[in-house]
Amino acid sequence: MGSFTLYPALDLRGGRVVRLAQGDYARETQYGDDPLPRAAAFAAAGARWMHLVDLDAARAGGYTLAPLLADIARDTGLQVQTGGGVRSREDVLRILEAGASRVVVGSLAVREPEAVAAWLAEFGGERITVALDTRQDADGTWKLPVHGWTEDAGGTLDALLPVYVRAGLRHLLCTDIDRDGMLSGPNLDLYRHLRALAPGVAVQASGGVRDVDDVRNARLAGCSGAVLGRALLEGRLSLADALDEQVLPC
């Protein structure tokens, strides 16, 4: 089993740190307007990476967090994986130039896989994280909602992921939308399925992580990392404890 990376996460809407329950913009919990000090605290606890999301842009397009991203990269030393509203090659360039280590591409990765495959070829698999956020339908099919998880694009996870494997995908972020922000534990069956479908891709678990046991179980399921959201913001999970688990042998 390879290395495992934790991504403490900040989702921003209107300049505030928030969490959405199951991706629903009407079910928002606010946690303050202090993203830079929070990022600095992640670094002080020993994190090497963080995950930063522009929720306004995820719905409307036009990434707005470049100034904050630049401050985080400069002041904390964290490597930042970030996205929201990435619609063009120029968006990718602008976010990388602002200090991102990886750009997360979500809705466009579902709508226009040819374009995103071209970005993987141009910028390299280490600079692009494809986010295939998913929801299982009544038939057991993993569907791929887009536009801030508010629209069904008609694609499926099992059909699209192999397209990106052939294009050189290195990093996949996959959120089980029904578990996002719900503190119900990560969907380990989903991540085992992804590892079988794309064994050479580093899969990041997202959605539902509650405690150190969930971090450990994501590792054992073959994930290369996990995104820590609500549990971290609400003090249910110690980042220091989670980081200790990150380096323990399985």
UniProtKB/TrEMBL annotation:
Keyword Isomerase recorded: yes
InterPro entries per record: Aldolase_TIM, His_biosynth, HisA/PriA, HisA_bact_arch, Isoase_HisA-like, RibuloseP-bd_barrel
Active site residues per record: D11, D133
Subcellular location: Cytoplasm
Highest taxon in the source lineage: Bacteria
Pathway annotation: Amino-acid biosynthesis; L-histidine biosynthesis; L-histidine from 5-phospho-alpha-D-ribose 1-diphosphate: step 4/9
Listed EC numbers: 5.3.1.16
Catalytic activity: 1-(5-phospho-beta-D-ribosyl)-5-[(5-phospho-beta-D-ribosylamino)methylideneamino]imidazole-4-carboxamide = 5-[(5-phospho-1-deoxy-D-ribulos-1-ylimino)methylamino]-1-(5-phospho-beta-D-ribosyl)imidazole-4-carboxamide
Keywords: Amino-acid biosynthesis, Cytoplasm, Histidine biosynthesis, Isomerase
A molecular-function term among this protein's GO annotations: 1-(5-phosphoribosyl)-5-[(5-phosphoribosylamino)methylideneamino]imidazole-4-carboxamide isomerase activity
Keyword Transport in annotation: no
Enzyme class, spelled out: isomerase
Pfam families associated with the record: His_biosynth
Family membership noted in the UniProt record: Belongs to the HisA/HisF family.
HAMAP family given in the database record: HisA (MF_01014)
Name of protein: 1-(5-phosphoribosyl)-5-[(5-phosphoribosylamino)methylideneamino] imidazole-4-carboxamide isomerase
